[in-house]
Every structure is written in C-alpha cells, then in structure tokens.
Design goal:
The complex is a heterodimer of chains A (333) and B (330). Chain A is of the alpha/beta class. Chain A has twelve helices and twelve strands. Chain A has an eight-stranded mixed beta sheet with strand order 6-7-8-3-9-10-12-11, with helices on both faces. In chain A, a hairpin with a 2-residue loop joins strand 4 (67-75) and strand 5. The chains are: A alpha/beta (333), B alpha/beta (330).
C-alpha cells in the first residue's frame, strides 16, 4: 500500500505530449500529474484518446518521432524526460518493466520464448547465455506457465493469448523491476483467462512489492486490482484518489457519468445513464473545462476557465462546480 | 416477453453444424476439419431477444452467420417463420432476407466510406426495389429513429464518432422493417460512455418495434441488460440456456458459473470479497475437442463419466436447459 512518508517511486508533473499531424498538432496530454508509490497499484483510466497510453510512452521515452514531450517524469529521483538514451535503455526493461495489450505483436515470431526472455536478461546483466536461459525458465515458472521446462522452446504462434501474456509478464519481470507499466494487459483476453492474469498480477505485487501502473478502460478490472485511480479526460486528470473513494464518492461529473453509464452484472435493473456527446478531439485547445460541453452540471464559468486539480476529501478533483459536495452541504443527499 | 406456447417460434434452429476445412501446414495437402458449430438447437420467438454468449472461438458468431445464411451451414435446419432457409435458392434467399438483418461489431469497417449516410441507410431499400424518392424519405425517417437526425443523411461515415456510426449501422438494419436483427458484439468496439447510449437505443427499439434480437456478445453485463434469454456456448455447443434472470441468479452449468464469477464488477468493495472460480488453462482447440463433455478438461467437477459420455442438453426447470452430468443444481 502507499506510504506517504517516503518519496514516490514515480512522479509525473505537468507532462505535455504533442503529436505533429498533417494539419498542425494534437495536444494529447495536457499537463498530467501522477504519483505512484512503492508497491502501489495505480490505475490510469480513460476512454480512447484520453492520453493514457501517450503519457506512459512519454514516461518511457518510447514516443514516436512525430511526438514531443515536456514537463517532468522522475523515477526514484532520476529525471527520465530528456535523459540520454543509454540511461533510458538501462531503466526500461530493468527497473521499469512493461507489458502491452497485444502479446502477439509484441513478441518476436521467429524466436522461441526462452530466447526472448533470455535476451531481456542479457541486455541488463552480465550473465552467460546458458545462465540467462535457465533464468528464463525460472521466470516462466514464476508466472505459472504450465510445463515451463518443456514448453520453453515454443514459439509465440504455438501459444494461446493467455500464455503469450504470461510470457510478456515473465519478460517484464526478468530484471526484478520496481514498477510494472501495464497497458491494457487483459483487454485482448477472454474473461476466464483475464481472471487468471489478474490473479497473477495480484500475487506478484504481493510477493515482490511490485508497483503497477495499470492503464485500462475497464473499471471492473480497476475495482479488483487498483489502490489508487486516476481518471483521465482529454489529456488531463479529471479526478484521482483512493479506489473506494473514486467508486463510492466520485466528485468529478465525468467520473460520476462514467459510473452511471456502466452496465453492471450485479444490478440488472439499473437504468443506464449515458454521458451524451463525445470527447473533444485535441486539434484545438479546449476553452475552459474540457468536459464542460458534455457536463450536466456545467455553469457559465466552466466554459471559460480550466479548473485546477484541488483536494476534495481524499481525492484530487479538477472541477469548479463539485456537484456532490454542494449537495452534501445542502443536506439533500 | 411475447413468447407464448401456442405460437410457433419465429426462428427454429435444429442440429446446426458448421465445419471448416483447415490445413495443418502449407506443404501438407491433407485437410483436417474444424467443427466451429457442433449441433446447436434453439428457438427465438417473435419479439424475443436471445443472447449467445461465450469466449472467442466458441462458435457464437458462426452460429449467427449460419442462421442468416451469411455462411452456408454444413448441416442442420434453420426455419424462419416456417420457411426452411437452408433450402432457399439465392434469389429466394434475397427476398427472405428482408425480414432478417444484421448489425456488425466494428462501425468503422462495416460502413462504406465513399457513400453518404443517407445512401448507406437507404441501400437495402434500393436492393429491394424502392425508387430514389422513397429511399430518401425512408432514410430520413430511420435516422430520426436512431436519434441521429435526418440531416445526417448528407454526411459521410468519417464525420461521425464510433457511437454515431453504430447508429447508422442499426438504421441500415432497420430499413426493411425486419422481424429479426442479429447483432454481433454491437457495443464492444465502443467506449464505455458511448456503450450506454447504444444499449439504451437497442432496448428502446426492441420494446417499441417488437423486434426479435439474436445478440452475440462476450460481455455478460451488457447481455444482462439486453436479452430475455441467454444461451451459453462452449466449443461449438450450447451448454446452458435459460431466461436471463434465472441464468444469472442460478447458473446450473459449471462453465456458466465460472464465466459469471470471472466477469469483474466495477465496485471495489464487492469485487475484492468475491469468491471467484478461476478456471485453469485456455479453451481447447475445436480441431480436436475433448471426448465426452467438452468442458471437462477445465471443469472442477469433472469425473470419469464426463470423458466417456457426452451430456445431452436437458430440461431441469421450465425454460432452463443444461448439458452437464453433475450440474450445480444436482
């Protein structure tokens, strides 16, 4: 769990990411603040285009050539933004592990999985190929890869989606990272396989005090795994806070709207309330609060001034209306 | 629900089988067959929404495509309002298709980018002999019906968001006033806040127009909101079918129970205390399915009988069928 007295492991401040496109630029991340403590699972949720993946690629120095990032990303005291490539290479796959959504396209189809995992080990450590390969088998066993010794020589196409994702996780853990950045790690998987991978991540974070940045659009996955939740909208944090507060005392109208629009297995008779409208496309800077055009609580001021993140109870919220709060104050809730 | 026991069901599917030929490797010429659908039977009454759920590769989409004869079934019978669809000539089939239409998963690839929305929505009418003026008028009406507004007609698909495009796909399916619409994962490509809009639109259309739905989905919470009955498929077979509320509250097949327990609930206080059945392994390949009960390799209740005898789909309560030797009620 998060320990507020120690400095955070990963601290992102005022991160901006811009993509050059044919007719100008897209300001995909517009001043993101994110803090992850040691051993903490921090979820970053948002819809497509909200900037969640772009901000993580910027953090890792993996943005495409047409993108630029500014702001600050500090990992255990080291500034990553603008760090020289050798520094980034040693941290990526070393103290920061990564897993991506689609394990098929992230694995090399012409190498067997033992060699691919061994490669991750050799890149970061002075070991012989033989040692690296036995480490690879060890890692496969750690992620509960069935029959690891025998099947370590399999090629990616011989494996199911769930098995491939286990290989990805084994590679990400090859060098005992402090933090794992997981971008939609279960989205491509079937629900019964998703449950297995979530169980694995849960047990890893416990046995290794692993911090996880969990990027996802699936609030059910968040509810089961995250300690803190960061809700992104149009390239910024709309609301962040402890998981129970986000789900049970949401403050930002977008968070409230998301939860109300969610079909729930356990509440079949609940009327779904869509948010209405669509997220802004960030070719132009939104004026005022970027959610205001879709917000049922918006007042005139919302269309003029972008609200800063401010503390509301246990959460940080970027909203100048705070509908839940005023309601509680009036005693009508 | 509109189903009554006297009326014959709108759709009657019996022993539907679909096999595909697959080659194991490029140099080997001998083909093996993959049975994607292995003897599936179900009914859909007029105005009823039946969901087919299951994991990828279970045959749910293939089943729907065979019912509409978008794919030729290998064997079995599909009767639509008394007419055997599998025996129709292509000309007869085209006429019959007026009454059953389809909405596809991906609203980005299922709409022609070079046609205006009005042309897309009106095209089915043109195919079935309407003139241009009729087509235009009906397109405007349909676009109103899916809450896009008639002025959407002159614009192109790329000018719309994913949710709006899915409305276009739904309007196209409604164009010929069908009795049945098959929807293949109609909301799974959409963002959460947009999904709710489409779910509500579909609920509305189902209730207002008395349409029957054959609804293909993997998301059990979406299914719960949209269907009257649910059939759970595993490796080409229906393992359980029941009214939605019964299936969710009292699943009888171990696989159904596992599916329900694996689907996350977006509430940390509930989600963390749930007792979950986590199945081991992945579904086996349909090229070489397990003997007996196909689920037995992942089932925690399996005994030797399950490997020997395939359990038939039998009634255990009114409207509730299950294919399991040791179902959870017993």
């Amino acid at each position: 769990m998060s320990d507020l007295t120690t400095p955070p492991l990963l601290e992102i401040r005022d991160l901006h990411v811009r993509f050059a496109v044919r007719n100008g630029q897209v300001h995909a991340v517009r001043g993101l603040d994110l803090t992850v403590h040691r051993g903490e699972v921090a979820a970053v949720v948002g819809e497509s285009g909200s900037g969640k993946s772009a901000s993580m690629l910027a953090t890792l120095g993996l943005l495409d050539i047409n993108a630029s990032a500014s702001g600050s990303v500090r990992f255990d005291g080291t500034e990553l933004l603008g760090a020289p490539p050798p520094v980034l290479r040693s941290i990526r796959g070393g103290r920061i592990g990564m897993i991506f959504q689609d394990p098929m396209t992230s694995l090399n189809p012409v190498l067997d999985i033992r060699r691919q995992i061994a490669e991750a080990v050799i890149t970061h450590r002075q070991v012989s190929p033989r040692q690296a390969e036995s480490k690879a088998v060890e890692l496969l066993e750690m992620v509960s890869f069935p029959d690891a010794v025998r099947r370590a020589r399999s090629y990616p196409h011989e494996l199911s989606g769930g098995m491939r994702q286990r290989v990805m996780i084994a590679m990400a853990l090859a060098n005992d990272p402090d933090i794992l950045i997981a971008d939609e790690p279960t989205t491509a998987l079937d629900v019964t396989v998703q449950a297995q991978i979530l169980d694995l991540l849960r047990s890893l974070r416990q046995s290794r005090e692993l911090a996880i940045v969990l990027i996802t659009h699936d609030l059910g996955v968040v509810a089961g795994l995250a300690d803190t939740v960061n809700v992104m909208y149009a390239g910024r944090i709309a609301e962040s806070g402890p998981v129970v507060d986000i789900f049970h005392r949401p403050q930002h109208p977008y968070t409230i709207g998301l939860l109300a629009s969610l079909p729930r297995l356990d509440r079949p008779d609940r009327e779904l309330t869509p948010i209405g409208g669509v997220p802004p496309r960030l070719y132009e800077e939104p004026e005022g609060c970027s959610f205001a055009p879709r917000c049922r609580y918006a007042v005139e001021a919302c269309h003029e001034v972008e609200p800063p993140l401010e503390r509301v109870e246990a959460s940080m919220v970027a909203c100048s209306v705070l509908p839940m709060r005023s309601r509680t104050a009036e005693g009508s809730l | 629900m509109t189903s009554t026991s006297i009326e014959a069901p709108l759709v009657q599917v019996r022993d539907l089988v679909k096999e595909f030929e697959v080659r194991r490797s490029s140099w080997r010429t001998q083909a093996t067959t993959l049975q994607a659908v292995s003897g599936v039977s179900f009914d859909i009454s007029a105005g009823e929404a039946l969901a087919l759920v299951g994991e990828s590769g279970c045959g749910k989409s293939t089943t729907a495509r065979c019912v509409l004869r978008l794919t030729e079934p290998t064997s079995g019978s599909v009767r639509f309002d008394g007419v055997e669809l599998t025996e129709l000539s292509s000309g007869e089939l085209r006429k019959a298709r007026k009454r059953f239409q389809m909405v596809f998963q991906d609203p980005y690839t299922s709409l022609n980018p070079r046609m205006t929305v009005g042309e897309i929505v009106g095209e089915p009418l043109l195919v079935h002999g309407a003139n241009a003026a009729e087509q235009l008028a009906r397109a405007a009406e349909l676009l109103e019906q899916v809450q896009l507004g008639a002025d959407a007609a002159d614009r192109y698909p790329h000018q719309f968001s994913g949710g709006q495009r899915q409305r276009v796909g739904i309007a196209r399916a409604l164009a010929l006033s069908p009795d049945l619409i098959a929807l293949d994962e109609p909301v799974s490509a959409l963002d959460v806040s947009i999904q709710a809009e489409i779910i509500r639109l579909l609920q509305h259309l189902r209730d207002e127009l008395g349409l029957a739905f054959l609804f293909i989905a993997h998301d059990l919470s979406v299914v719960r909101h949209l269907s009257h009955r649910v059939a759970v498929m595993y490796l080409g077979k229906i393992v359980e079918v029941a009214r939605t509320a019964d299936l969710y509250s009292r699943p009888a097949h171990p696989y159904t129970k596992a599916l329900l327990s694996a689907a996350p609930i977006p509430d940390p206080l509930i989600e963390r205390d749930r007792v979950r059945i986590v199945l081991t392994g992945d579904p086996p390949t349909p090229v070489n399915p397990p003997s007996g009960c196909r689920f037995r390799t992942r089932c925690w209740r399996a005994e030797s009988l399950c490997a020997e005898v395939e359990p038939p789909l039998i009634d255990i309560a009114e409207g509730h069928k299950v294919a399991c030797h040791f179902n959870l009620w017993s």
